[in-house]
Amino acid sequence: xxxxxxxxxxxxxxxxxxxxxxxxxxxxxxxxxxxxxxxxxxxxxxxxxxxxxxxxxxxxxxxxxxxxxxxxxxxxxxxxxxxxxxxxxxxxxxxxxxxxxxxxxxxxxxxxxxxxxxxxxxxxxxxxxxxxxxxxxxxxxxxxxxxxxxxxxxxxxxxxxxxxxxxxxxxxxxxxxxxxxxxxxxx
Length: 187
Description:
Blueprint: H1 14-31, E1 33-37, H2 38-55, H3 60-70, H4 73-86, E2 95-102, E3 109-115, H5 120-128, H6 136-186
Antiparallel strand pairs: 1-3, 2-3
């Protein structure tokens, strides 16, 4: 029985699982985003977020502890130089899991796990979005602008109608003239 055992073993022995999570964490820290299965992403989130928290304290001790998990100098330097500076004010939740659907071969649920502060697309949409309050003042400006455009459109339609009337009267005169010529020709 597995009472209160919430750790996902991912169908691997301990050494294989630790090596896989270490490699995935290294890839995540270097590339900022990786594509994997949902189960592995959830396990990776539990593995990498404490390391990112530890990187906020840049000391030799914390570097050695993080290196014992990652086994990659490049990933450790990337984590302590760039990533820790970006997440300094964030109290947790450094990663985001976005589900992508199922894999074609074995129908496994796929997802993309990424570092939250490195998605420029989502950051730019957040900055441009602003909540607006409804007020009577702002509505008056909009209604004035709408009224002005309506006046301009009304003038344009009147001009178009007048030109059409002129065209129709000319056509009627032409038709009468043609009809008169044919009557004279018959008579």
